[in-house]
Each structure stands twice: as C-alpha cells, then as structure tokens.
User: What shape does this take?
Amino acid sequence: MSALTIYAENFSENGERFTDFESIETKLNAIGVQFERWTAAQKLENNASNDDVLNAYSDSIERLKNQYDFQTADVIKLDSTHPEKVAMREKFLAEHTHSEFEVRFFVEGCGLFYLHVGDQVFGVLCEKGDLISVPANVKHWFDMGENPYLACIRLFTNPEGWVANFTNSDISKAFPTLDKLKQELSA
Assistant: This one.
C-alpha cells in the first residue's frame, strides 16, 4: 500500500498519514511533486530484461520525456543479494538535492522517499505502479530498506545521470526507516 506521512521537521512521530491515492496525489501536487500510477502495456515476466521493462512502459516514458525534456531512461534493479546494498543505502539515506528534478517509477518492490520542504517532511512510501518526481533543489533522501527489493525506471535530464549535492544534515536519522514504516502499516 502506498502511503504519505507528513511530519513537522523537528518532530518525527505522529505525522498525519494518508493511504488513498487521491489524497497522496493532492498533498504532493501542492508542493510541486508529481505522483502517478502507471500500468504496463504488456505483461512482464519475473525475469524481464531492462529493455522489456522500458518497452512495457514506453508510452508513459515518452509522454514524460516530451513533457520535461528527459534525455535518458534506464532501469535499476536491487535485491537483498546485491553486493553494494549497504553502501548504496547509506549514500541514498543522506539528505541531498539535485540541480534537476528526479523521477522514479516503481516497476517492482518499494522504497521510501522523504522530502524536506520548508518546515515539513513528507514521507512517501512508493510501491509497484507508483511514479514520483522530486523537484530540483528539494532536500530529500531515500530508503530502500535493509534487504532491498525494487526495480525502478529512472528518467534524467542530465546525461550524467544521478548527481547529488549532499547537505551534510543528519535529519534522516530522526525519521522511520522503510522497514519500521512497513511494520507500522502492517500492524
């Protein structure tokens, strides 16, 4: 289940939670974040290649490329056996910005984006079928969990791909991890 929790930046408990798509979309649109649901044009097998994934979502990808002048799209897949999962998680958990906006579409699995906007923090649990954009220069971080499982389409305006500007803040340590949030939602 997708979820949005809005916290005060200095208080990481008892945030206001939304789990219905329309509320999530409305709250995120108010801060300039695009949140959509996509479906594949064709059935994808469990071992689908990156090209198969891109082809299955080609209409939606082309729409966004035309809308935002994206230069490239690729697929990243991570699971609990990935040899660099700990280092990657640590890097993504550090609050950072990008000079261009970041777009992720979840083909499989899930991940938790935190967006630090003004004096609020928006925790967005994205799952299969969810697309989220993070506007340029918005402070954010991402948690893929201790044992990640995700496949995402990434769209870039920068031909160099993912380039982060780290804030050196430790704010991310005050907010629930993906694993903790999933436990809360299943309780």
